[in-house]
Design brief:
3 helices, 7-stranded antiparallel β-sheet, 16 strands, globular, mainly beta
């Protein structure tokens, strides 16, 4: 067995041993977890050094979608119910990371729901795009929140990030990359009990995964738990598989230089 095949086999063994993690401070559908600084995703501006994430790598068909966006497969995380007063500021940070590009425009979002799952607001939508702002995502619901910074161009190139699985480090055409940390602020109009829903989806096929990192969620300055606690270590096995382009080999689309 040559060196490349040996490293790939070892990566599969490590990934299998590591298994999938789930987030306990709420409900995860698909693949969710928590990490510290890893690859292109640095420590968040608030709530760090760890952060929560959802990813399409290992996601479930029909999950992590918005009504306008649709999609193939994904993951989503719902916080436990939290209370808000009228006029409270709902604030958190997000970082959209994608290995996909061109016409295969994956997306992510955050939605505010009542405790009975009635839609209240879109806190952001973000979609793969080769130029211009990723948020709000084209063809998706518009943002009801204020984002800081106001602009959100993609930081291009095949992003190394463990939650992308074997697509870590890969890039399919223009549009792959990451947004960096962006803050979302939304003023709650009515007192009540709410849920924060965060999701990510593969838009047109299962190839070239995307993910969403999030941190620092709070309502009126009170922390909203959004992760399982201690950050997991970086998964070097996944980075090795991304380096060798294993995701592309297994799923038919060839990576294109970013």
């Amino acid at each position: 067995m040559n060196l490349k095949l040996t490293l790939i086999a070892g990566a599969f063994a490590l990934a299998t041993a590591a298994g999938a993690s789930s987030a306990s401070a709420g409900t995860c559908i698909g693949v969710c977890g928590s990490l510290g600084p890893d690859g292109v995703v640095t420590s968040p501006p608030a709530g760090g050094p760890g952060y929560g994430y959802v990813t399409t790598s290992g996601g479930i068909d029909g999950v992590g979608q918005t009504p306008l966006g649709g999609g193939i497969n994904g993951s989503e995380f719902h916080t436990d119910t939290f209370s808000a007063k009228a006029g409270d500021d709902l604030q958190f940070y997000f970082n959209y990371v994608t290995s996909d590009g061109a016409e295969f425009a994956d997306y992510s979002f955050a939605e505010l729901l009542t405790s009975t799952s009635t839609h209240v607001a879109w806190l952001f939508t973000a979609r793969t795009t080769p130029s211009g702002d990723t948020s709000p995502g084209f063809g998706l619901e518009t943002n009801d929140s204020t984002l800081t910074p106001l602009t959100s161009p993609i930081i291009g190139g095949g992003p190394f990030w463990s939650p992308l699985g074997d697509d870590s480090g890969s890039c399919f055409d223009e549009g792959c990359g990451y947004t960096g940390w962006i803050r979302s602020d939304y003023t709650v109009a009515d007192a009540g009990d709410y849920i924060l829903r965060l999701g990510v989806t593969n838009a047109l096929d299962h190839a070239y995964d995307s993910g969403l990192a999030y941190a620092g969620a709070n309502i009126g300055g009170v922390v909203i738990p959004t992760s399982s606690g201690a950050p997991e270590p970086a998964t070097w096995a996944m980075m090795l598989m991304g380096f060798f382009g294993l995701g592309a080999m297994l799923r038919g689309r060839k990576p294109v230089a970013a």
